[in-house]
Amino acid sequence: MWLIALAAFTAVLAYLYHVNRVIMTTPEEALRLSPHRWTVEEIKSAYEKAASEPTDVSKSVPPKQNRRYIVVGGTGLVGNSIISHLLMRGESPSAIRILDLRAPKQDILSKGVAYILTDITSEQAVQDAFTHPWPEDVANLPLTVFHNAAVIRPGDRLKAFLPLCRGVNVNGAVNVLNAAKKAGASCFIATSSGSVCLRRFPLWFAPWTAPKHMVQVVHDEVKLPEQHDDFFGNYAVVKAEAEHIIRSADDTSTNFRTGCIRPVNGIYGIGDTTASVTGNYMKSQGSPSWTYNVIHSFVNAENVSIAHLLYEQRLLEHPTTKRPDIGGQAFAVTDPNPPVQFDDIYRLLCTVVQTPMAFPHVPIIPFVLLSYLIEAYSFLQYVYLPRLPRITGDLATLQPGLFAIANAHVIGDDSRARQTPEEGGLGFVAPITTLEGMCKEIRAWNDSV
Question: Cis omega before residue 80 (within 30°)?
Fold first, then answer.
């Protein structure tokens, strides 16, 4: 009997070792799409260039439209970049209004941009924020709404947890959409997510097979998953639902034009460090990593902002051109370079960040097994025993759904957004590469510490 038990135990260990090895080995398919690794010399050169010869982003920002702007979620990474670009191109500060639960930085407010504390899950709060009187000199300008607010819970995958992010990401989006219509807005652009296209890859698979969906190329022609369990997690489920509602609201007969931008995959940039991939790493001084082999496309918040402004420009121009009507669509956007490996980012951070950084490599399987225990406890606490203490912080994120996005190799293809307006694209040319953008963010961090 003990021999059978020993054999079974050995077989389980061998299987766990095999799963760990497969997931932590970069597939050749992904390596072909990202063959170059950042060197220390390349990193140091880019870091110096980010200060001495930064890219002039203003050349990529569409011209002034002379409109009013409501930016929902305007203190986040993308929203903050949109505000900066609106001011950069000469829009009147008094014609810009931020709706958010957090106040923007004082330098934005000091320029004359308005801020209204708003909980978008409250229909009345949103209506009040939209109907708040505008300064007399801009009150009659046409209105554009940029909707960037979202709750990101990458670890949740169970249907029982949907209310934790659906309230903001779906109900909040509907409240903003309805308020925009009532306020007479003619353009509504929302930040969706490239993750709506991702399919969950299995953490457990037969020893003689490779897991499906380990490498995924995200582009506009990818068919979205149809079943809840096919999405990587709840965040993608609710973002897909909100995107469908917003895109379906596009209506030429009432001149209410809508569309969505899908950033692929992790967003980073100067501003809200809690929402930035690199910013979080710098705040925590690194972390143990089981994703060092993973290849991802990343996108700078300024590149995402430019895509929003280009989409607005295309929708406003459409009535006076013979170009294809692209209202009610979604466009994937990413940085203008091949995807990078997480180890590239770790090398970058350890090379030029002035605060301590460390990314010890750890096996994934112990964390996968732990994630099931955390998910089970979280389910029990949330559904049946709310008096139990909640798991909070990074540990709460460690649930099985996290690995379906963190350990999939996700490559963004924004070729459709880069097509010319005559071809039905945005004419999107992202000015900031991943290496330059992350160097700019690190330099800002170094200057602040």
Answer: no
